[in-house]
Amino acid sequence: MSGEIEIHSTDRGEPTAEEEMLLAAMTERLARFFERKSLQSALERSEQRYRMVFDSTPVAMISCDARGIVFDVNAYLLSKFFQDEIGKQELVGRHVLELGLCDLTGRETDFMQFARGLCVNLREAPILESRYRGAGYANIRCLPLMDAHGKVEGGLVIIEDITEVREAQRAMIQSAKMAAVGQMMTGFAHEAGTPLGTISANAQYLLKGWEGKAGADELHAILSETNRIANLIEKLLIFARPARFHLLPTSLNDMIQEVLSMMQNQEIMRGIEVITDFRPDIPPLPVEPTLAKQVFFNLIINAAQAMPIGGRLTIASRLSRSRPGSRQPGPYVEVALTDTGVGISPSNLRKIFTPFFTTKEFGKGVGLGLSLSYRIVQNHGGTIVAESRGEGRGATFRVYLPLAGPSRDMSETSGDWIEPVARKRGDHNGSR
To answer: Measured between alpha carbons, how far is 8 from 11 in angstroms, rounded to an integer?
Structure first.
């Protein structure tokens, strides 16, 4: 910085030595003052640029000292993890591991290695569910912050939410797997259908002249079992061939109430208290009524089977702006069915919608009810989310259906399988 100072005096004489020293001192002090102001302005501009970059980065970031005490967090973290309901001042001064963002049980020592100048990568850390956010997964990077002499002054923690990426990868794997299963099912259905039809036709022919004679009961049993196998084959083919259906504007609230009325006197509902909480402002949405009824029938039966000694089933509907596992904008109609039954273990939760997966006793189910329900909802452009806190703690199934109905290509479904979302409640049921 350079400048000039002009001094005007009424005294025409030359300045004295004392005056020159005073002027020199004043000039030096002014120069230092303006230099400090210039440096301060440059520092403020630098801090503004840092803050702009820090807050504009679309990943959660935390700055902390070498002990792990937080001194700054960016705007994305406040939005992503706390929905902007908690301010920065409530997080600053706390230990980074006490913020309750991700479950790092057993990995705390690795996390704090940044204090030794090491870069740390922790992959697929579970995101802890709270009232501000759902469960998920994140990749965490911890980078050491060093001064000009290489001394570690703190760390920068970067948390990248990979929940959607992880679910998309699993969906692609499952889609390829189900395509192969579909081909196998088609071949099996054709190969088994012909001999099964022959057995059934011959049994019917023999019965015409055999009623009331010895062996008639056995022929009836043959017919009953062949019909059961034929029904199973028909269900298998749903996975293997496109299904066209006709959409009609339908009130989900009325439909579910109709299903409940049909089931209220069935033995399986004995001892179960049903509570409904339907939003009256939900408009009709386009669905195939018969298939949609089948979905809620399956889910209610599944919940009832999870409460063999009775319990409570709560069914609630509401409008939702989005649905899990999709960036497709809503609105959606969300129907949540929550039971107080046996719950689902984390390992079973991951397989809950897989065809033929069941925890029922042999002969009491083949594990197709939930997978068929998911398939139907998927073909309507929606999804089903299963949640549970674990065994013995009940379960919830959330059905999401788009208010506008499925897109045209979905209503003429291609038969592709998209893996359903299953998560722990805080992370719910299936063919349990």
So the answer is: 9
Which one is predicted more confidently, 71 or 369? 71
pLDDT on residue 363: 52
- Least confidently predicted of 22-26, 260-264, 296-300, 334-338: 22-26
Mean pLDDT, rounded, for 394-399:
94
This prediction has a pTM of 0.51
CATH, domain range 57-161: 3.30.450.20
The predicted structure's pLDDT at residue 10: 67
Domain at 248-424, CATH from 3.40.50.2300, 3.60.21.10, 3.30.565.10, 3.10.180.10: 3.30.565.10
